[in-house]
């Protein structure tokens, strides 16, 4: 009887685990399909807004509304991109990284211009020094910088600039995104790179209680940087502000898969 009860308990535990795995996989599959299907209507909205803005189809009084539509479309596009990347990792496909020889300075300039266009009221400083040629995935690195810059805008002090620095060293390239404001609490720094974690500072005037962030930007940024063989870490103090530092090897070396 004892052995029978133990067998029943084990079978029940295994069934619960399988059921939980299936529920999780079904949820992730649904999110992947949802994110993919949202792209088409969002693309139509984006093209319509561009048409109205560039063809002079609206008068000057309506142009700010068109610009707000374009900004909202960009925000939604970033959310969908992050959602699809997250579900891809959850479904075991991993984060694809395809490095090529390129000028990382150009990637920084592109990310800077993109975020500046989305936040015209924020001052963005771009500082670049040294040889910035390396082997990276331009699209993925641009995504990382976009996520970090948008994060800096969301959590930085109102009216303070956001700085993107790029320094070329002998064997590596170091990128920094800096914003001023209240330091990140130590407890928050322990979990901020986990998925679906949203950091809010209720005492900060720039904190948005209705933020559209999914809490995936930092998780994806770290995953992409790790895929390049690099590191991403953060320091946050009252005097220096919050600094996210990316260190990438200049020459990409694909990690060997472990064999059993």
Strand content: 15-25%
User: What is the arithmetic mean of pLDDT?
Assistant: 79
End-to-end distance: 39 Å
The neighbouring-strand order within the major sheet is: 2-4-5-7-6
* Helix content, binned percent: 40-55%
Q: Which stretches are low in confidence, meaning pLDDT under 50 for 5 or more residues running?
A: 202-212
- Give the beta-strand count: 7
Q: What radius of gyration results from the CA coordinates?
A: 22 Å
The coarse silhouette is globular
Number of alpha- plus pi-helical segments: 6
Order of helices and strands: HHEHEEHEEHHEE
What would you call the structural class?
Answer: alpha+beta
Major β-sheet annotation: 5 strands, mixed
Task: Describe what this molecule looks like in 3D.
This protein is of the alpha+beta class and 260 residues long. 50% of the residues lie in helices and 17% in strands. The chain has 6 helices and 7 strands, in the order ααβαββαββααββ. The strands form 2 sheets. It has a 5-stranded mixed beta sheet with strand order 2-4-5-7-6. It has a two-stranded antiparallel ribbon with strand order 1-3. A hairpin with a 3-residue loop joins strand 4 and strand 5. Helix 4 runs antiparallel to helix 6. The radius of gyration is 22 Å and the shape is globular. The chain starts with a helix and ends in an 11-residue tail after the last strand. About 4% of the residues have low confidence.
């Amino acid at each position: 009887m004892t052995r029978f009860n133990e067998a029943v308990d084990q079978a029940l535990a295994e069934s619960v685990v399988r059921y939980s795995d299936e529920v999780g996989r079904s949820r992730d599959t649904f999110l992947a399909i949802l994110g993919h299907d949202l792209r088409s209507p969002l693309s139509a909205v984006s093209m319509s807004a561009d048409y109205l803005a560039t063809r002079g189809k609206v008068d000057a009084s309506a142009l700010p509304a068109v610009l707000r539509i374009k900004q909202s479309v960009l925000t939604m596009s970033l959310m969908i991109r992050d959602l699809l990347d997250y579900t891809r990792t959850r479904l075991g496909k991993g984060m694809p990284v395809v490095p090529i020889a390129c000028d990382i300075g150009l990637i920084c300039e592109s990310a800077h211009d993109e975020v500046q266009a989305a936040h015209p009221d924020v001052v963005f400083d771009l500082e670049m020094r040294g040889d910035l040629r390396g082997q990276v995935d331009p699209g993925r690195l641009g995504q990382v910088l976009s996520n970090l810059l948008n994060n800096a805008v969301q959590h930085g002090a109102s009216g303070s600039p956001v700085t993107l620095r790029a320094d070329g060293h002998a064997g590596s390239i170091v990128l920094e995104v800096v914003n001023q404001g209240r330091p990140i609490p130590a407890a928050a720094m322990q979990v901020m790179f986990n998925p679906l974690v949203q950091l809010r500072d209720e005492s900060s005037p720039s904190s948005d209680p209705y933020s559209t962030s999914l809490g995936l930007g930092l998780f994806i940024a770290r995953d992409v940087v790790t895929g390049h063989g690099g590191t991403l870490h953060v320091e946050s103090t009252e005097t220096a502000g919050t600094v996210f530092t990316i260190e990438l090897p200049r020459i990409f070396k694909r990690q060997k898969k472990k064999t059993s």
